[in-house]
Design a protein that fits this description.
heterodimer, A: mainly alpha, MetI-like fold, two-stranded antiparallel ribbon, 20 helices, 1% strand, B: alpha+beta, 4-stranded antiparallel beta sheet
């Protein structure tokens, strides 16, 4: 405390004057505007010009898309008669169902919805904080969900293998959620519960798998008892379409791309010349040609490559082509990650006496994939966008459905509105993916 | 316990186990296995294919290249008629593909650099708009954008009678049949001007070398940029005027229902070109932004402390270093432009894939040969571009001691 005793004996305490507020033009809204929009006369001109451009664009879009738009009409003619310079959203409303599901029969569309809801429910625990066994749930989703979804979407007769896998998937789904509910309410995992109930707690950990297996078998039996005769009618894949088909193709490609890419990348960095050269040839071939040529090859040449009695439908051919293409691109991303892991990590893993696969799975790949998250997700976004190319081959994905809207005799010429609507959907999907990858990157960032 | 077991196993290790556990032998075994699998797959596909070809009575071989194609192509840069051969169709397709790709590459690079720099603008409004441009364009499929430009923009343009007059000079006419513009028709002596252009380019090249040598020796700078510009434009124009302006322009004019004279670009070309430019510019913008940001601020400060003017700092310090980071992704974007130009097939622009892989393949039925030839073209473009990139990278990479 700066205090001085004056000659008269009073204590004088130094109290500084309150500092003056900063000039009004440097703080608050005004300061921000000066700093960011009007810091020079040129910048001011630029700002006003841009504002004017934004203004006329927004007004024109509002006029076209909302003020003058037609929401209810029977045909494009009627739209034009009602409002010649407005958007014809009536067409989108009429075609909405087709844009979403293609020609999937109306009464069966609940299966598509159910399939995606199940996927969402099954994946949801991955985002719950402090939950054990997330990796197990993730592996179960990737390994078993395709069978369940495949049956839900395609339907029809199922052989003994499909029968088994579908019910295994349902069992796994029930087990996953039992596990989640138990863990969140009591703090003990499903595995611990089962072990505790059957009195295996004292026994060796190696024996714990028997109660687990037994429990799974019981759930499986119950599921089978209730759903054993359940079946849905077959829906031919040429009726699949719209956003549904887009998501199916993109989903399969995304799921296949990562393991395929990792395998190819490891092969490319292998010490064995035969394996390395084969991997390089495959990757470079698929990366140097456009996807559309790969799709053409899949459609025109695959029937020639296979024995005459094997008939693949077009969807399967296209999916195989896209998967090969996606794996080649993903391989280069993964290779970038492998090269970015410092050499010391490889040497340390070797020094610890880890085998090749153990050092890859435990040390190298986790670091490499984490480094490459933005690129991997960027690749997934690219794949989702690339699925639009199947429309050229004649599969009714969302883009071809949007195009078909304007080719329908009643709605002929209606192109702008469907394409803008489709662009919005693609944008939402891709933008959400890229934002999620950025948040994931921030969360997993370990370096300072 | 474990040690005992280990010792026992070591003692009882047979020569067989020794061979199996040797890493070199394992490596050879795996390679033979992979080789065998690949060989078997190839053999399987090959036998299936020959059997299928025989069963369908399809011929194989490249003889079809000499036979007449017989279909017409909507628009081509080099002259084409239905009596030409399949081999010539291949060439027509390649030229059409390269034409649209090269033009798109030039323009998309310019636009991408502008947007990339705008994203770094101090002006918040400008940088935000540039950022949203990049986000919106990058997150919608290119094919959708191509269809949008084709179906929603160029197909709904007015008929030739109500053409939009671009530039209001009456020489650039835009309508639903395409963009009409004047066509140069060189006269007899025009070749002298062409030679002059060539001479000017060579002269500028040597001028640059000389100026650099002089600067290294004496420290004096020579205004290379302005003098080059003068030579590049001055010499050909001078020669052109001296030889008596031997260049006529054929200007499009409305006669009846259509334009006569001049030349035109069809709507499919315009749609593809604009979509390619706008789409890839967003990728280049991101590269440019990242490249400029990768030059550390210390470089700017160091150059100001040496007394360089801001313009010189940008030109001599920042851009050369940023280019090192920008070039590799930029070149791979160029490669993507060439590959993505194959989406032309969706709107009927006759590029290589459309005329050769679709029309010719459907007509001749030589699926394998045609697919292989198309893939060969794209692969060789890719290989050429990546070879150029490797050469460039070697030249500009940091020379560390």
């Amino acid at each position: 405390m700066a205090s001085v005793e004056s000659s008269s004996g009073d204590v004088i305490v130094f109290t500084p004057k309150a500092s003056k507020p900063p000039p009004a033009t440097t703080v608050g809204v005004l300061g921000w505007l000066r700093e960011n929009l009007f810091y020079s006369w040129f910048s001011a001109v630029l700002t006003f010009a841009t504002l004017y451009l934004i203004f006329i664009t927004v007004v024109a879009l509002y006029q076209w898309g909302i003020a003058d738009a037609v929401w209810e009409a029977e045909s494009r003619r009627q739209c034009l008669d009602t409002s010649p310079h407005g958007a014809c959203w009536a067409g989108i409303i009429t075609w909405f169902n087709a844009i979403m599901y293609g020609r999937f029969p109306d009464v069966e569309q609940w299966r598509v919805n159910l399939g995606f809801i199940l996927l969402f429910l099954w994946m949801a625990p991955m985002w719950f904080p402090r939950l054990k066994g997330k990796i197990g749930i993730g592996i179960m989703v990737v390994a078993l969900y395709p069978f369940l979804a495949g049956y839900l979407f395609a339907g029809g007769e199922r052989g003994w293998f499909m029968q088994f896998m579908v019910f295994l998937a349902v069992t796994a789904f029930i087990n996953s959620w039992l596990h989640v509910i138990l863990s969140l309410t009591t703090g003990r995992t499903l595995g611990e519960w089962i072990v505790g109930l059957t009195g295996f707690t004292d026994k060796h950990e190696r024996l714990h798998k028997y109660p687990h297996l037994g429990f799974t078998a019981i759930v499986f039996a119950i599921v089978y008892f209730f759903l054993g005769d359940w079946s849905v009618v077959a829906v031919n894949t040429n009726l699949w379409g719209g956003l549904f088909l887009t998501l199916v193709i993109a989903g399969v490609a995304i799921v296949a791309a990562l393991p395929g890419g990792v395998t190819l990348a490891l092969a490319r960095r292998s010490n064995m010349p035969v394996i390395r050269v084969s991997a390089i040839a495959f990757i470079e071939l698929f990366r140097s040609v456009p996807l559309i040529t790969v799709l053409f090859m899949a459609v025109t040449m695959m029937p020639l490559f296979l024995p005459a009695d094997v008939q693949l439908n077009k969807l399967v051919q296209v999916i195989i082509g896209i998967c090969l293409f996606a794996a080649a691109y993903m391989a280069e991303v993964v290779r970038g990650g492998l090269q970015a892991v410092p050499n010391g990590q490889y040497e340390a893993a070797k020094a610890m006496g880890l085998t090749y696969w153990k050092s890859m799975n435990l040390i190298i790949l986790p670091q490499a994939l984490k480094l490459m998250i933005p690129n991997i997700v960027g690749n997934f976004i690219g794949l989702l966008k690339d699925t639009t190319l199947v429309s050229i081959i004649g599969l009714y994905d969302m883009l071809l459905m949007l195009k078909a809207t304007g080719q329908n005799p009643i709605w002929i010429g209606l192109h702008t509105e469907p394409l803008m609507f489709g662009a919005l959907i693609y944008f939402i999907l891709c933008f959400a993916m890229s934002q999620y990858s950025q948040s994931l990157e921030r969360k997993l960032k370990t370096t300072l | 316990m474990a040690a005992v077991i280990e010792r026992e196993s070591r003692d009882s290790r047979s020569t067989f186990a020794k061979i199996v556990n040797d890493e070199r032998n394992r490596s050879i075994f795996y390679q033979i296995l992979v080789f065998g699998i690949i060989g078997w797959v190839c053999w399987y596909l090959f036998t299936n294919t020959t059997a299928n070809l025989e069963a369908r009575g399809m011929a194989s071989g490249f003889d079809f290249l000499g036979s007449t194609a017989g279909f017409s192509i909507a628009w081509s840069i080099i002259p084409y008629s239905p009596t030409d051969t399949y081999g010539y169709v291949y060439l027509v397709g390649i030229v059409n593909t390269l034409m649209v790709s090269l033009l798109a590459i030039v323009l998309t690079t310019i636009l991408g650099f502008i947007i990339g720099v705008l994203r770094l603008s101090h002006n918040w409004l400008i940088s935000t708009i540039a950022a949203w441009y990049v986000e919106i364009i990058r997150n919608t499929p290119l094919l959708l954008q191509i269809l949008f430009w084709y179906l929603a923009v160029f197909s709904v343009l007015p008929r030739p009678k109500q053409s939009i007059d671009l530039g209001a000079m009456g020489i650039f006419q835009l309508n639903n049949r395409g963009l009409y513009f004047p066509e140069p028709q060189p006269g007899d002596l025009f070749w002298i001007t062409m030679v002059a252009m060539l001479v000017a380019v060579v002269a500028v090249y040597f001028l640059a070398i000389w100026a650099k040598r002089r600067q290294l020796a004496t420290g004096e700078r020579f205004p290379v940029f302005w003098s080059s510009l003068g030579v590049l434009f001055g010499l050909p124009i001078l020669v052109y005027l001296v030889t008596g302006s031997p260049l006529e322009w054929s200007i499009p004019e409305l006669k009846g229902f259509n334009f006569q004279g001049g030349t035109k670009l069809p709507p499919s070309f315009l749609a593809l070109f604009i979509a390619l430019v706008i789409y890839h510019a967003s990728y280049i913008a991101e590269n440019v932004r990242a490249g400029i940001l990768s030059v550390s601020h210390g470089q700017t400060e160091a150059s100001s402390s040496l007394g360089l003017k801001p313009g010189w700092t940008l030109r001599l310090i920042i851009i050369p270093q940023a280019m090192r980071a920008i070039m590799p992704p930029l070149i791979s974007t160029w490669m993507t432009v060439v590959k993505n130009s194959s989406l032309a097939i969706a709107i009927g622009y006759p590029d290589l894939v459309a005329v050769y892989m679709q029309t010719s393949l459907n007509q001749s039925g030589h699926a394998i040969e045609i697919v292989a030839m198309v893939m060969l073209f794209y692969s060789s473009v890719s290989l050429t571009i990546s070879a150029a990139m490797n050469y460039y990278n070697e030249r500009v990479q940091l020379k560390e001691r």
